[in-house]
Design goal:
Elements: H1 5-14, E1 21-22, H2 24-31, H3 35-47, E2 51-54, E3 58-61, H4 75-81, E4 85-88, E5 99-102, H5 107-110, E6 118-122, H6 126-134, E7 138-141, H7 149-158, E8 162-164, H8 169-186, H9 192-195, H10 209-219, E9 224-227, E10 233-237, H11 239-242, H12 251-254, H13 268-278, E11 282-286, E12 292-297, H14 298-309, H15 318-323, E13 327-331, E14 334-340, H16 354-373, E15 376-387, E16 395-405, E17 409-418, E18 421-433
Parallel strand pairs: 5-6, 6-7, 7-8
Antiparallel strand pairs: 1-3, 2-3, 4-8, 9-10, 11-12, 13-14, 14-16, 15-18, 16-17, 17-18
């Protein structure tokens, strides 16, 4: 992929040491670009949190924000939330505190708990302020108090952030807690863009298998997207594809061109099921023009699920909970699902609810079309011909059979059996979604 001048400048800024001054003239001269191009790239770098414009100092390279969990806040975000003023340590505002500590107890007691990566909320107690800095903590000075020259000098010498805010400790803490709560509410449905890896290693079609081996050895990975000169994903290549192949063979000759991709707005719960259905380990994430913007692996999804399980207000979707115990299989006529009817699915009569049965049948049809034809579809109509709901604890097999296809629609017959007994039968027509 050809690197633009804008991308070249951003990469140059990323490689600078924290604290290095950045200027339009310096960038333009060093990289042989126009000052206009340099100015726009520096503004973009500021938006990305790579540099910060500090009054009376200039624009400097700052520490990038650490990879955050859904509920984490950086010091920069906290300073904005509490309407604070940053007195020093601007380069460290990307830090995400490991813990918040309120400096309201005795100096001897609080000393045990102050660690690096701590944000210490304290009023005008200078001895606690100095103690916190000595221990490597950042300070949020509440109550509208300033700090002495001694405290400010120590903060500058240790390059630790000191933030002052006009609110007392209780109000400041409440504001931070509220921000965390709102962030979790916004993230209630986790999407691919929240967890995808954006710094992606990839191969070009004209590369050779020997270059796959070099990249695999360098990164420790075995699967890579294949991206053409326009940045469009054209395939994926794995260790299985290159096994036993001549090192001079082109990637184009061995890659899998029929690759599953997803958009950044795709729900993680949906993508997790598709990964299982398709048997893929890695999914390239693309924009509307199929340009590569990231990748998501099974491990990334598992990590996201582990994280949301720690957050009681973030739940699974009903579909995902219902289908979590079902497995994908095949029969002579096509695709089938098999699983148990659980207590989660039953109505007050002790049998699977009609809604649950319809959802299982329609999902089975979607999977059948996706597996067989590689189409994404939406249900246009659904007719339930027979219904004898299975009881809780029964094991069911859901058989699908594609009856008819044309350019715009696909018709599928679905049958649910418990042993040899037919429990439900339906016919659905799905409309093809062209992406």
């Amino acid at each position: 992929m050809v690197e633009t001048k804008h991308e070249l400048i951003i990469r140059f800024i990323k490689d600078l040491e924290v604290g290095t001054k950045v200027s339009v003239r310096q960038i333009a001269k060093e990289l042989d670009v126009s000052e206009g191009t340099a100015y726009r790239a520096i503004k973009d770098a500021e938006a990305q949190g790579l540099v910060s414009s500090i009054p009376k100092v200039g624009t400097i390279r700052i520490e990038e924000e650490e990879e955050k969990e859904l509920e984490d806040l950086s010091l920069r975000e906290i300073s904005l939330i509490v309407e604070g003023e940053v007195l020093c340590g601007h380069e460290k505002l990307g830090m995400v505190p490991d813990q918040f500590l309120i400096g309201s107890t005795s100096e001897k007691f609080i000393e045990r708990y102050i660690e690096k990566q701590t944000l210490l909320l304290v009023g005008d107690r200078e001895e606690v302020q100095l103690l916190g800095l000595d221990k490597g903590a950042a300070l949020l000075v509440t109550g509208g108090f300033g700090v002495s020259e001694q405290v400010l000098e120590k903060g500058r010498s240790l390059n630790l952030p000191i933030i002052t805010c006009p609110y007392d400790t209780f109000v400041a803490t409440s504001m931070i807690n509220r921000a965390v709560y709102e962030r979790l509410s916004y993230k209630e449905l986790v999407r691919v863009e929240d967890i995808m890896i954006t710094d992606v290693d990839y191969l070009s079609p004209e590369y050779t298998v020997s270059q796959w081996h070099e990249l695999a050895q360098k990164t420790g990975h075995s699967r890579f997207p294949v991206v053409d000169q326009n940045g469009v994903v054209v395939g994926i290549v794995s260790a299985v594809d290159v096994a036993g192949v001549d090192p001079d063979t082109s990637i184009l000759a061995v890659m899998t061109a029929d690759v599953l991709t997803a958009g950044p707005k795709t729900l993680v719960t949906h993508l997790s099921r598709v990964l299982v259905w398709e048997g893929f380990e890695l999914v390239p994430i693309v924009d509307d023009e199929k340009h590569l913007v990231g990748v998501v692996s099974r491990q990334d999804i598992l990590k996201a699920f582990q994280q949301t399980q720690k957050q009681p207000q973030v739940g699974e979707t009903v579909d995902n909970l219902t289908l979590s115990g079902f497995k994908l299989g095949e029969w002579d006529g096509g695709v089938k699902l098999e699983g148990d009817i659980t207590e989660f699915m039953v109505s007050e009569l002790g049998t699977a609810s009609v809604g649950t049965v319809v959802m299982i049948l329609s999902t089975a049809a979607f999977i059948a079309i996706r597996k067989s034809l590689r189409w994404d579809t939406v249900t246009e109509n659904f007719t339930l011909y027979q219904m004898n709901p299975p009881a809780v604890g029964e094991r069911v097999d859901v058989f699908t059979k594609i009856l008819q296809t044309d350019k715009k629609t696909c018709t599928v017959e679905i049958e649910m059996y418990s042993g040899s007994e037919l429990k439900a039968k339906a016919l659905t027509t799905c409309r093809v979604v062209r992406k």
